[in-house]
Structure formats: structure tokens, C-alpha cells
Design a protein that fits this description.
The protein folds into two domains: about 160 residues, Rossmann fold, CATH 3.40.50; about 110 residues, N-(1-d-carboxylethyl)-l-norvaline Dehydrogenase, domain 2 (Orthogonal Bundle), CATH 1.10.1040. Helix content is about 55%, strand content about 15%. It has a six-stranded parallel β-sheet with strand order 3-2-1-4-5-6, with helices on both faces. It has a three-stranded mixed β-sheet with strand order 7-8-9. α3 crosses α4, α4 runs parallel beside α5 and α10 packs antiparallel against α11.
Amino acid sequence: MTPGFIGLGQMGAPMAGHLAGRGLIVYDTRPEAVAPLVKAGARAARSVAEVAAHADVVSVMVRDDEQVREVGAEILASARRGTVLAIHSTIAARTAVELAEEGGRYGIDVVDAPVSGGFMGASAGTLAVMVGGTGEAFERCREPFGTWAELVLHMGPVGAGTRTKLARNLLHFVAFSAAAEAQRLAEASGVSLRKLGRIVRHTDAITGGPGSIMLRPTTAPLAEDDALYDILRHVRALGEKDLSLALDLAGELGVDAPFAELALQRFAAGLGLEDGDG
């Protein structure tokens, strides 16, 4: 299979770099972005249409929905039947669905395949990729995606990859705001923010951070005979105690801590526990 890659920015360039020795054909509006890939063994295309005409799997990593629609239309007009168009940009789920419907008229499979892991993961080839599309299209993508991703998962039909990415990023960016609240508390307490950061990064690497409790197939309340019931009751006890202590300290220091207050209110329900499951 011949891979193609369009969009060689901060993420796209290192992702494409892992495919450079595999017959890769690339395109970007900036010649300076293309040159390092050509030096590594890729072939430069003169247009989006040229990539689409020669590649079996065309990966697209551009900025937003508007660019995805524009590039996608060019690909659908030029690609052969049976080509897979993979959208790695984070877009609205409906954009991928609409593009897939249009692709069906041309005999082209569209998958939404956003990634997680940042520039570091793209460079190391250790990204996670969340694929929405048909099972057949997923199987055709699995090998090329595996050159730059360590975790390649089929999430469901078209749009499922993007919905997964949006849920994942909700956690990611909400955590940034919670981190800022924790830093305000630490700063008011006279604690070194740099050392706090080191502690957080070290311990999250050990425990898995928030992902460590994402083990259940549903958010419905836990049954008492569930294997996780006693474990999460213990987590609840620890969490509510420590959140209460942190809020007491925030009150003493005059630090506003709305994330902690909301977390305490919703902690048990978030674990799948009822009020009486203390």
C-alpha cells in the first residue's frame, strides 16, 4: 500500500516521518515543510490531487473543519475507488460523517482518526489513534497507522473517533484549570510550584492519573456485587477526606477553589456510588 500525507505541521511532519521509507507521497503548501520528508525518502507531490491519485491511504492533518472540507473535496475528486481518506485533525463529528457520506458516492472510505499524545508522541511514534469508520477501512489503516502510533483502536462508525477525542480532551483541558486552582492553593501556602509540578508528574506516571479509574463500561451506579464496588468506596473515602482538607486550607488562606467544591459535591456520583455507599 502507498501511504499519502497532507499537512506537515507540528504533528503531521513527525507522523509522516515514520512513513518516509515506505513509498510515502506528501504535500504541504510550504516547500520548507516538504523538503525534510523528501530527504528522508518521501516523494513530493505538486498538489493535493496528486497525492490522492497515487496513495491508497491518504492521511490529512490540517488546522480545522474548513480546511478538512476543502482538502477532503479535492481528495474525493481525484482518488481512486477503494482509497481510504483518514482525517487526523480534531474536528466536529458531523464533519467526518458528512465527508464519509460524500465519499461513499465515489467508492472512497472516510475514517476520522484523531490522535492523542502530542508532538512528543508523534516524534517517538507512540501516539494513540482513535478510528471511526467501517471495519474494513480500519483494517486497511491499521498497518500505516501503526508506524507512528503505539495504540490503534477502532472506536466504532464514522464520527466515533472524533467523539472519543473530544471526551478525552475535555478531561485534558478541564484538568489544566484544576491544576491552576491547585497551584493557587500551593502558592498561597508558600509551597514551591515547580516542586509541586515535579510531584504531580512523578506520581501521575506511577498511578495513571485520572485514567486509572476509567475502568467501567458504563457510568450507571455500581451494584454492590461489582468487583470494583469496595475499591471505589475506598477511593471515595480518601477523595472526600482530602478534598475537604484542601477546602479547609483554601478557606483559611482565602483562596477561591470552585473546582474542588464541585468535585466534592459530585465525587461519589462520578465513581458510580450512591449517597449511602460511604
